[in-house]
Amino acid sequence: MIYRLLALNIDGTLLQTNGRIHKSTKEAIDYVQQKGIYVTLVTSRSFPSAKKVARALKIKNPLITHQGAYIASAQDKPIYVKRISEDITYDTVRFLEGIPCQIRLVHEDYSLANRTKLYNNLLSKTVFTSGDPVFYSQQFVSSLSEYLHDQPVTPPKIEVYFEEENDLQDVKDALGKMYTEIETICLDPLRLDIVPAGVSKLSGLSYLCSTLGIQRKEMVVIGDGLDDIPSIEAAGLGVAMGNGGFEIKRASDWITRSQNEQGVAYMVKEHFRKQQPIEFLRKMNIIKK
Question: Phi-psi region for residue 15, left (φ > 0), alpha (ψ -120 to 50) or beta?
């Protein structure tokens, strides 16, 4: 099979546990791009945060961010964006404020969160080390609903960090019954993303591929999280990181090494070195477009 697109998750995939990108990973991404493979990032992160990683990897293509709700190569020129309406955002926040959790409205220009005491150390670390660049405004307010009453927001995504696993499941069930305009995506037992209906990493990948004339079977997707599973199952080659959980490994076609063992670089060397450059394949009429 000839693969024409490589889609990469960021956290737990490209980044090591220290938050850095290994030199071999950068070299691997450069290698596949020189072969004419279209490389993109597909992430739950905000666009500015993903763009920071893309610059380090010299990726200039549109990035699939905010769980697929915001696709762009430049922040002021999105090729696709879907938002949660002002009313649904406000009503959802009012509902969530009755539960012990951190609520973060993730806009492409800024983030807005409630100021709350976090008793879970892992939760606190997650919220405050999101990888956002210095110039990305992060504001904390005492009451999100009061703020939204005067200054409405239409975010592509809402992140919710819970203290208790039971609360996450209760909220997921409740929101599913309350609204058809939004959907929930579970990233781990304490983290829930709320996105516009129909939005997912897979929907973002499908949209990008349709604009490029690339079929799903020509995609390689590498990830480590629960939200990567639909994309991995749909891809021509779905790859799970060695540090991924059982569910994603079961859904994948291939399992590479862990993030600290440069799993992305290892996978690229194993598979893409055998594939001729895309331009050569076009000249040989093996690829028509």
Answer: beta
Tokens for 222? 């590498």
CA distance 60 to 78: 13
User: In CATH, what number does 86-196 get?
Assistant: 3.30.1240.10
In the chain, the amino acid numbered 80 is: Y
Low-confidence ranges of the chain (pLDDT < 70): 117-134, 276-289
The single-letter DSSP state of residue 10 is I
The predicted model scores a pTM of: 0.92
Return the closest-CA partner of residue 93 out of 151, 50, 165.
151
pLDDT confidence of residue 127? 46
pLDDT digits (tens, 9 = 90+) for 222-238: 999 999 999 999 999 99
Tokens (6 digits) for 59: 């990726």
Q: How far apart are CA 55 and CA 43, in angstroms?
A: 15
Residues 6+ apart with CB under 8 A from 164: 100
CATH label, 5-81+199-283, candidates 3.90.650.10, 3.40.50.11270, 3.40.50.1000, 3.40.50.1980: 3.40.50.1000
The predicted pLDDT at position 136 comes to 80
- Alpha helix segments (H runs only) across the chain: 23-34, 47-57, 86-96, 121-128, 144-150, 165-178, 201-212, 229-234, 246-251, 263-271, 278-283
How buried is 200 (Cβ within 10 angstroms: 0-12 exposed, 13-18 middle, 19+ buried)?
buried
Distance of CA 92 to the CA centre of its chain: 22
For 117-138, how does the pLDDT look when each residue is reduced to its tens digit (9 = 90+)?
655 544 444 444 456 666 788 8
